[in-house]
Amino acid sequence: MLRILLKKYILETWPLWLACAFVLVFFPWVRIWTVSQFELSGFASLIEQFKAFEKFSPVPLSQFLTYEGIIGLTFAEPILLLAVLTFSIARGSDVVSGELGRGTMEMLLAQPISRLKLLLSHGFISVAGLAVLCLLTWIGIVLGLHTNSTLVQQPKTEVSIPGTPISFSNPFEESKSVLTPLHELVSSELYIASTINLFSLGFFMFCLSVFMSSWDQYRWRTIGLVIGVYVAQILLFVLAKSTPRTRFLMPFSFFGAYQPDWMVQSIGSENMPMFAIFRYRSVPNGFFSNIEIGPLGYSLILIGLGLSLYTLACVIFCRRDIPAP
Amino acid sequence: MKRGAIFGLLGPNGAGKTTLIRCLLGFVTPTSGRAQLEGLDCQTQSVLVRRQVAYLPAEARLFRMMRGDVVLDFFSHIHPGGSLDRSKSIATRLSLDLSRRVAFMSTGMRQKLAIACVLACRARLLILDEPTANLDPSVRAEVLTLIREAQCEGSTVLFSSHIFSEIEELCGTAAIMRNGRVIQSIDIEQLRSTHRISAIPTTGASISIGDNNVGEISVIENSVKRFEVDILGPLEEYLPWISSLPLKNLRIEPTGLKNVYESCCEYS
Fold it and tell me: Where residue B124 falls among pLDDT bands split at 50, 70, 90?
């Protein structure tokens, strides 16, 4: 009985999943190829002009002058977010209000299956699909790093004066650039935490959509409400970042827990363990003076919030009346 | 409802027929009272109740992106009483093309597909809400035959319809609902032997009905302008008495469900 229900949800999911998978594998590859075509030091002057906007960035802008930083920015690209969020919202909104809107819920619930089982089997297929999509994003990054090379300027030969501690680079030597494979410059493991963070954002949006769908009757309204919440949260996040006075708003936006760029920087430059939930900080800062949230901690916040919404959705759906089609 | 019988459910739109069915399936919570089926509470033991029920909604909507044969496969596997062979055999009897996607089927074809899904299920109770809507007369007759076959194999059938002839043909008993209540229970067998007499009195006075007839005659109208009664016994015994009455434009017809229904819905 459960097998046939899972089969139904796979049948409904795969066309959208395939389209998203295509985007999520090829977009990171194309982006890394684009990055490999440029000498990043050339962007220094451009980045300098955006110094005033550095407060909106989770990491110092200089991070984007490194290959690991600029590739980490892939996780903030609208196309990538659009693919993940489209999958999450489309699947999440479909489970109750979608079936009700199409009138198929009545035939489905006339069968001897509990509402909870129906919701969970849908959730299982959708979350598994989302997890594989995020894995494909990481595979896209790995492929990009292993199939692209970039020109890297070689350091000039050091000349030292015998008998003295003086050494300097040879001023008569011409600067040479060598084509270097990107995987020698950047480790793909750096992006595992960001990929988990991307999954947790998708999971949260999926659960939010299921929650909205659980009490609604019209899928278009469910999608509208979820997008409304998403936009409101972005605005809140920007507002929280704008001034020190509005910084207290940060915990009210779930975007505060979506920090893929920060994770790349912390793991790459500060050697933070990628699966750290908390990190002990030697320099006290604020109320929880010595404790800082780690990369996995941020992802767990989003997953925890998502699970709470999903539990609420289960309670609402199991108790509500099913309207006639 | 008697076990193994076909029970008809009638009533005007909004009478509560579908709501009653939806209460039995646990789709809606009753505002008051409890619904039970085979001793199981329809709210708290809904899954167990639905194991014993196969339900065909009034407007059955199926998964649009599935092909007909995939829909049959889905419903035959999701219900413990389902059978793919039986549902395919019913689909063949209803001349249904199973290779088409539901989205490209006509309303009648979708109804046939839903019927094949539901009637193939060997459930103890079949709940059919207007099963013959959108079907052509020949398919309609075949569906009624299928329902009779299901009854012969031991299923009890709750048959909700607005078509009196179908209920008269199929059901042993029926109930008329209005405003959420059963206002009349009808024994269809008894109804078949009931006749309605309507005529105009010629004397300019109402007709006197003898005391010995009162028990078997139900007066609908007895005025100077119109005489209308239902006779609840063998008609031939009353014919001498009727011929002795001062009446003109006499009409004798089987009372039928239609007349009972109109009386109930008019006078209740």
Answer: very high
CA separation for the pair B167, B173 (Å, rounded): 9
Supply the angle between the helices A219-242 and A78-93 in degrees, to the nearest 10. Answer: 140
The residues near A22 (Cβ < 8 Å, ≥ 6 apart) are none
State the Cα–Cα distance between residues B234 and B216, nearest whole angstrom: 10
Q: Read off the pLDDT of residues A243-291 as tens digits, 9 standing for 90 and up.
A: 888 888 888 999 999 999 889 988 888 788 888 888 776 655 555 556 7
Residue A51: which pLDDT band, with cuts at 50, 70 and 90?
Answer: confident
Three-state DSSP class for residue A278: strand
Closest CA to B197 of B226, B244, B231, B239: B231
Q: Is B78 exposed, middle or buried (0-12, 13-18, 19+ CB in 10 A)?
A: buried
B181/A contact by beta carbon, under 8 A: no
A104 near B CB under 8 A: yes
Say how far apart CA A1 and CA A112 lie, in whole Å: 9
Chain A: closest CA distance from residue B69 (Å): 13
Kindly list the domain boundaries of chain B, sorted by start residue.
6-188, 193-267
Instruction: Calculate mean pLDDT across residues B38-50.
Output: 93
- pTM of structure: 0.87
Residue B62 touches chain A, beta carbons under 8 Å: yes
Contact B50 A102 (CB under 8 A): no
Q: How far apart are CA B64 and CA A199, in angstroms?
A: 30
List CB contacts (< 8 A) between A12 and chain B: 63, 65
ipTM of the complex: 0.84
Q: pLDDT tens digits for B203-228?
A: 877 878 776 565 678 888 888 888 88
Alpha helices, DSSP H only, in A159-269? Answer: 182-185, 192-215, 219-242, 260-268
- Using CA coordinates, name the residue in chain B closest to A116: B47
Angle subtended at Cα A194 by Cα A287 and Cα A46, rounded to the nearest 5 degrees:
90
Q: How many CB atoms lie within 10 A of CB B75?
A: 26
Q: Identify the pLDDT of residue A227.
A: 97
Residue of A nearest to B43 (CA): A319
pLDDT, tens only, A145-200: 999 998 887 777 777 777 777 777 777 777 777 888 889 989 999 999 999 999 99
DSSP per-residue letters across A54-82:
GGGSSS-GGGGGSHHHHHHGGGG-HHHHH
- Residue A105: closest CA among chain B residues belongs to which residue? B61
Closest partner CB to B50 (pick from A8, A104, A110): A110
CA distance B104 to B125: 31
State the Cα torsion A192-A198-A199-A204 to the nearest 10°. 150
Fold classified for B6-188: Rossmann fold (3.40.50)
